[in-house]
Amino acid sequence: MLTFQTFPLGPLATNAYLVTDAERKRAVVIDPGTPDPTLLRRLESYEVEAVLLTHAHFDHIGGVEAVRERFGCPVYLHAAEKDWLSDPAKNGSLLWPEAGPPVSGRAPDHLLKDGDELQLLGETFRVLHTPGHSPGGASFLCGDLLFAGDVLFRRSVGRTDLPGGNADQLTRSIREKLYVLPENVIVLPGHGPDTTIGEERRENPFVRG
Fold first, then answer.
1. pLDDT per residue over 155-203, tens digit each?
2. Are 4 and 17 in contact (CB under 8 A)?
3. Do residues 40 and 27 make contact, with C-beta atoms less than 8 angstroms apart?
4. Phi/psi of residue 14, nearest 5 degrees
5. Cβ pair 148, 174 in contact under 8 A
6. Which domains does the chain have, with CATH numbers?
7. What CA dihedral angle connects 155, 161, 145 and 193, to 10 degrees?
8. Is the pLDDT score of 99 beyond 90?
9. Are 38 and 10 in contact (CB under 8 A)?
């Protein structure tokens, strides 16, 4: 049985998720925004199978190299943002110097596309391409857990005024990829508290179901 722990990291309180199979002592990390010592110490108890990135904005990728180098695990990112990890201009870290130094690292090990199914932790993580906040936005569905990045929040949606953002595209992603999921699917966003698909269909003021 999979469990997860949330680590709000960095000046923007970006949610990093540690997803674990305690019985097999294996883990997946989603969006390590900073090289956080608490997260890294927690990972020492597991074999880290992968780092999954919902997108490559700086506040979601700042800890990627620390995790990859320490645990030797592959990094997965949608192909539309394949060069963002190494380019501070594209990942936005040059735009907010007050948030920290420029973020630059190696290219992803694996490029994702819509519909990919990743076999991790003995489970299937299905890749949903959900652009709009950024061109390579991806959500990961595993059972009734949806790691949604900055696409859908509790009673809100991702901003679309950054380079590569598109409001119409974001709305389509939410309606056509996320709101079609079962009501009980738990939405684990890139910032803020969790919610459910059913709640957001009914209550989200930005995109109605």
1. 999 999 999 999 999 999 999 999 999 999 999 999 999 999 999 999 9
2. yes
3. no
4. -75, 130
5. no
6. 2-203 (3.60.15.10)
7. -40
8. no
9. no
